[in-house]
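2024-03-11 09:14:02 INFO worker-7 job=invfold-0412 stage=load source=structure_tokens
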């Protein structure tokens, strides 16, 4: 894990908010009606729902989500035409532990 890449990903207020909202997706997003019942990606939220909450274009939000995923903070799953994102708790915990060691 590149700790600086992760810090940079968190330095944008909207990206930080997205990560915060995904901690309790049921409080911040409506049920994901497009997600098939066979999809076992609990807590996953589609890009469109995240885009609607931020008020930003889907292309901008997609870029933000990819940056958070590359930093190890999110994971994704594609189901049909939809891509769902959720927090990568293991990656977040690794980042926190690495930050404790280095600072």
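2024-03-11 09:14:09 INFO worker-7 stage=emit residues=103
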């Amino acid at each position: 894990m590149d700790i600086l890449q992760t810090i940079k990903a968190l330095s944008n207020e909207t990206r930080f908010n997205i990560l915060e909202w995904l901690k309790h997706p049921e409080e911040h997003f409506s049920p994901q009606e497009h997600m098939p019942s066979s999809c076992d990606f609990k807590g996953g939220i589609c890009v469109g729902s995240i885009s609607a909450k931020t008020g930003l274009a889907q292309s901008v939000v997609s870029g933000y989500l990819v940056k958070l995923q590359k930093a190890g903070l999110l994971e994704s799953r594609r189901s049909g035409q939809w891509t769902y994102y959720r927090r990568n708790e293991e990656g977040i915990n690794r980042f926190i532990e690495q930050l404790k060691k280095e600072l």
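2024-03-11 09:14:09 INFO worker-7 stage=report msg="The beta strands are 45-46, 74-79, 82-87."
2024-03-11 09:14:10 INFO worker-7 job finished
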